[in-house]
Amino acid sequence: MSTTSVKEHWDIEITPQNNLLDLKLKDVWHYRDLLVLLVRRDFVSFYKQTIFGPLWFFVQPVITILMYTIVFGGLAGIPTDGIPKPLFYLAGTIIWNYFADCLTKTSTVFKDNAAMLGKVYFPRLIMPLSIVLSNLIRFAVQLVLFIAMLLFYWFKGVTIAPNLYVLLFPFIVLLIAAQGLGFGMIISAVTTKYRDLTFVVSFGVPLAMYATTVIYPLSEVASKYHNYSWLIKYNPITELIETFRYGFLGKGGFDWQLFSYSAVVTFVILLIGTVIFNKVEKNFVDTI
Amino acid sequence: MSKAIKVENLSKAYQLGDFGTGTISRDIERFWARMRGKEDPFLKIGETNDRTQKGSSDVVWSLKDINFELEQGDAVGIIGRNGAGKSTLLKVLSRVTFPTTGSVKVKGRIASLLEVGTGFHPELTGRENIFLNGAILGMRKAEIKRKFDEIVDFSGVERYVDTPVKRYSSGMYVRLAFAVAAHLESEIMIIDEVLAVGDAEFQKKCLGKIGEVSQGEGRTVLFVSHNMATIQKICKRAILLKNGKLMQIDETNKVIDQYVSEKQDIISEYNFEPPADNGVGYVTKISILDDEDNFAGEIFMGKPWKVTIHFRILTSVSNFIIALGMQNLYELPIRTTWSIPQSYSPGYYTATFTEDQIYFTTGRYKLVIGLSIGKHSIQHIDKDVHLNISDIVEHMDESVITSDGIFLNNMNVVIENIN
Q1: Which bin fits B142, alpha (ψ -120 to 50), beta or left (φ > 0)?
Q2: CB-based contact (8 Å) between B101 and chain A?
Q3: B145 and chain A: CB distance < 8 Å anywhere?
Q4: How close is the nearest chain B Cα to the Cα of A58, in Å?
């Protein structure tokens, strides 16, 4: 065989190390149909063999806010900035649920799909992306519920004053998704080898909701626990929920600094998540 | 011809044992070593992967320094005993896991079939699963749409295509899954032993499809199987792995010869201690030989074989008979042969039974040996003696490749025109 100095072209090179910041987006783009089909799978299999079908997407938030209204609004008497209680809780709940669902589902993505990921290659990022998108559909359905309830109260004569900050809504969704994804990827990567964090997630996420302004307004914390209110304030989700409520309902407040802070934190978490995820995706099959 | 795959110094280490509280301290040590630019302290003492021996470290090299190149259009079989690294090699090539050192370079797309029906969702219908599974394997939606009818046709489940696959029989499930994979348009196909599923007819169909893919369409095929006959049929070349190392890459028949000669776990000679309560005679040794009088742990399918029984006579006997019986794995007697009743004086003898009339299909058969005087049994051996008919044929002959039934011999077929 003659040794040619011509550098040969190879389509795929499999090496032990890869660029940690390379998201292989080109690969992901090629597999975009898979992404769509996975989202469809999640959506369809969710209500297969049920009578109410997609209606179940409404049931969960409706019952949740019913409970909140009775327990936190009625029994505990936590004020809600003058917003009708169900509307107030629903606004917080749908945002929080989107975050929590993205996080918990992403955090077990390797474990849940080990059988599939162990047998065939496709860009691993597809899996968490499909989770974020699946939950986005659920979120959108619940948003419809929220708008419907908003209109209901508006026709009843409750003063609801949506303002220009509504336009920030797409960014809020993006930031929530990115945060859920970022945290989820960090946890998923660690749990491929050490399962300890899964326990933290299972009891930590529901508890973390109480450190976010889902069932109480930020103003209430500031007045009651002035010295510790920064804990709630600097929770990167808090300002996103507050902005959402302010934009749609006109109550509460908006703070550019806090909002930018949330955005920066989100970006950092997503970055760390991506790097760790990229590092782990290559060999998790051996340890999971 | 141009190269399709180039594997250079490929190694893959696995950590044995359980992951627990102890693992984290080691991870920290490892991280610290890497921070200082030193070699991973736990990889240095890697050993070859011989699972029968207890090693001193808990890191094993499942693959060690593998080098080879494949041309475009090659159909290559990968053979080796369990644990030789076959599956690991396929996993690395299909990018499911990554090598510890070394690299693989590939031209074109790879489709790997390490399992059929990856990602099938039981709640979804056959139709939905075809799309999902196709997409997982790297097909675009338009591509699947174009081939949809072909896929359904190949699988033979038209009637159930809109039924959730959880209601499928396992056979239908596998048929549908393989059909999707068989219609991938990739330059390289990696296939693990997925064909050990489905009925004989469908297996044949799958094999035909794989042969078509490699020979007809000029695609590169890498194929792992324990079934040598299949490898011989499909692959021109083969790779032999042993304990994670590449032993040989050559023409299929040569590699298989090497592989067979290395099989140490099959015995061809059995020795017997004299029984305590026997004053007439007893068997001392039984050997299984091929038609060239070599000790043979395995007999090639379709070749004659012999059993030589060494026995000792202690007192003069008449009407002495040696019998050889053969049973299948379910201990069902297949055939029995006797020697002619005869008189013997004390001494050592051998009796050789030659089978050159009937050819048995591949499998493990039990041999039963009996010594008797008339109908009075003296010794009966019905344990531990086995004859192995391998699934390898020496000369490829289409009529030999069948594993249905017990006998390979063809019947006489006469066809007459009766118009």
Answers
A1: alpha
A2: yes
A3: no
A4: 22
Spatial CB neighbours of B284, under 8 Å, sequence gap ≥ 6: B271, B272, B274, B310, B311, B312, B348
Is B5 exposed, middle or buried, given 0-12, 13-18 or 19+ CB atoms closer than 10 A? buried
Please report residues of B whose CB lies closer than 8 A to that of A33: 135, 139-141
A33 to chain B, any CB pair closer than 8 A? The answer is: yes
Q: The complex's ipTM?
A: 0.79
Q: Would you place residue B46 in the very low, low, confident or very high pLDDT band (cuts 50, 70, 90)?
A: very low
The dihedrals phi and psi of A286, each to the nearest 5 degrees, come to -80, -25
Sheet of B237-242, strand order: B110-113, B188-191, B220-224, B75-79, B237-242, B245-251
Which residues are A52's β-sheet partners?
none
Contacts of A44 in chain B (CB under 8 A): 123-124, 128
The pLDDT mean for chain A works out to 85
List the structure tokens of A257.
């600094």
Please give the structure tokens belonging to residue A254.
């908006």
CB-CB contact of B102 with B11 (8 Å): yes
Q: Which of B40, B66, B96, B166 to mutate to test the interface with A (most CBs of A within 10 A)?
A: B96
Which pair of tokens denotes residue A103?
Answer: 């996080």
Residue appearing with tokens 């072909």: B150
Nearest-neighbour CA in chain B from A208: distance (Å): 27
Which fold would CATH assign to domain B269-400?
A: Coagulation Factor XIII; Chain A, domain 1 (2.70.50)
In sequence order, the β-bridge partners of residue B125 are B164
With contacts defined as CB-CB under 8 Å, which chain B residues touch A120?
94, 96, 112, 114-115, 118-119, 136-137
Give the closest of B27, B104, B137 to A120, CB-based. Answer: B137
Smallest CA-to-CA distance from B348 within B283, B418, B292, B395 is with B283
CATH fold of the domain at B70-262: Rossmann fold (3.40.50)
Distance CA B296, CA B307 (A): 10
| The pLDDT value given to residue A261 | 92
For chain A, the distance separating the N- and C-terminal CA atoms, rounded to the nearest angstrom, is 44
Which tens digit of pLDDT belongs to each residue from B85-136? 888 898 888 888 888 888 899 888 888 888 777 778 888 889 988 998 888 8
Give the CA dihedral A136, A137, A142, A144, nearest 10 degrees: 110
Phi, psi at B8, each rounded to 5°: -125, 125
CB A149 within 8 A of CB A93: no
Closest CA to B238 of B77, B86, B75, B6: B77
Asked if the model's pLDDT at residue A26 lies above 90, the reply is: no
User: What are the chain B neighbours of A36 within 8 Å (beta carbons)?
Assistant: 141
Residue B216 is classified by DSSP as I
* Contact check, Cβ <8 Å, A193/B23: yes
Residue of B nearest to A18 (CA): B98
Q: Is A20 on the interface with B (CB under 8 A)?
A: no
Domain spans, chain B: 70-262, 269-400
Residue boundaries of the structural domains of chain A: 25-287
Contacts of residue A231, Cβ cutoff 8 Å, sequence gap at least 6: A211
Exposed / middle / buried, residue A13 (Cβ in 10 Å: 0-12, 13-18, 19+): exposed
